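Page header: ASSEMBLY MODEL / two components / 454 residues total.
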Amino acid sequence: MSGGPLTREQMARLVAEDIPAGSYVNLGIGQPTLVSDYLPAERGIVLHTENGMLGMGPVAVGDEVDPDLINAGKVPVTELPGAAYFHHADSFAMMRGGHLDVCVLGAFQVAANGDLANWHTGAPDAIPAVGGAMDLATGARDVYVMMTLFGKDGRPKLVPRCTYPLTGLACVSRVYTDHGVFLLTGGEVAVQRTFGITLAELGRRLDVPLTAAPGGA
Amino acid sequence: MSRLTIAPGPDEALAGVQDGATVLIGGFGTAGQPMELIDALRRTGAQHLTVVNNNAGNGDRGLAALLAGGQVRKIICSFPRQSDSYVFDELYRAGRIELEVVPQGNLAERIRAGGAGLGGFYTPTGVGTLLAEGKEVRRLGGRDYLLELPITADLALVKALRSDRMGNLVYRRTARNFGPIMCTAAATAVVQISELVDTGAIDPEAVVTPGIYVDRVVVVPDADPASTEVTRMGQGQ
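Prediction written out in full:
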């Protein structure tokens, strides 16, 4: 993984490698769903989908497609042996109650203190839609974010303070980006690894104080 | 003799719906959406409805058609905006429908609380966000929580796989979603089922919704292929 910035697939692989074996995990809509491609069965990781299922399998193809079996993105999926179905209140109770080990979410912005903004741009003409984003950010024991480090306009998405409306307060513990992996603890941002950029250059382009994580960067 | 009403068709199942009713409608996207009951609700002509659903309609059918008819005054949901929610989008931008956005888990728990007779609950979800505005914040055990109030309704429209003649229900896969909690929170719970079986034919250990919560059932065979059409991919929650 030397050279330039990571592709989405490489980011997904990194996230997957950091999820402890045996974890119960929710993968958010969009890029985070790619993580499931890198979770081999022998690691015993069980996927939760908030519309009411544990033990979700890969995306359904051909005859497997069943309109009654979909994920939170409303994409047809499959069930694995040991799967369980439950209603929405149970599904979010297991999230809010701290039973879900990890969730992986996309983000518009993450602040140095772990604040997350990923549901609303705040644009006056935008129709607000939150879905399960706030429940996931608040409920999962560890919240990992997977995003590009810079927006299309070049502005950093890892920021001193979020300017977009917040999804959850101080909830993000790790940020996986195309340029580096960041560990967030008590307002401190430690760089674990960088990709195609030096720590010094990252420090110049981001408006948050960075330290090198022990054994990293 | 069970007090369950077994209606001959969706229109009979919705007898007595009033203007201004609050209606819980099951389904997550089209999975578990009681399409034929929603169509029957539209045919009642009831006006000024408040609808509670996870979404705000997909395409032109079901909930979207009900909205298009101008019968819904307000929608309470978690995720209105989707790639095919154009009916709702247009009404909203024209100021012709009121929207209350609720985080999905809070929405589910508010319905559950309504059915369970609770006066509300304190939840950490939404603290410090735009959706906390106007809500009581209470610090408990060193953490902030928001007071969320229960949702109850006049009517629930739900889709299940199977019922017996007592109204005991079994659902199918992720089409279960809001069905069990919505049945508990409405004065009248109406359930469309694919199959009616004799009492005793469902293993009591496998009953998901006990018949005490169900008032009316109507058999709607899965005959209409369009009603089981899978929504296009990547529409968000």
